[in-house]
UniProtKB/TrEMBL annotation:
Similarity-based family: Belongs to the ArsC family.
Pfam family, one: ArsC
Gene3D superfamilies, alphabetized: Glutaredoxin (3.40.30.10)
Species this protein is from: Deinococcus radiophilus
InterPro entries associated with the record: Arsenate_reductase-like (IPR006660), Thioredoxin-like_sf (IPR036249)
UniProt protein name: Arsenate reductase
Amino acid sequence: MAEVTVQIFGTKKSKGARAAERFFKERRVGVHYVDLAQRPMSKGELTRFVQKFGLNALLDMEGKAYKDAGLEYLRVSDDSLLQKMLDDPGLLRLPLVRGGKRLAVGEDTQAKAVWAEMVG
């Protein structure tokens, strides 16, 4: 059986990203952590999550970055919003986790169920 590894996109400030990292390490799953503050996601990587969940599911509407960007009042195109998310990881609902063909967003109960599926 192949070694299970997951890729976690997050930031050091993200409580959810730390929770995901802890979850997988406790289960001895290899973690490839991508700190979005150091290395932004590629458009292709982010698009994969958008295609599965939709833009709004990835957007952290409760976060400071969302309010600071004025997005609660602005009407922006999907392309423009995608670019803003690439430029500012604070707009993303973190963590974004990829394990094989499975993807998860955030750290809610639904995301944690997908994490458990990734572990097998």
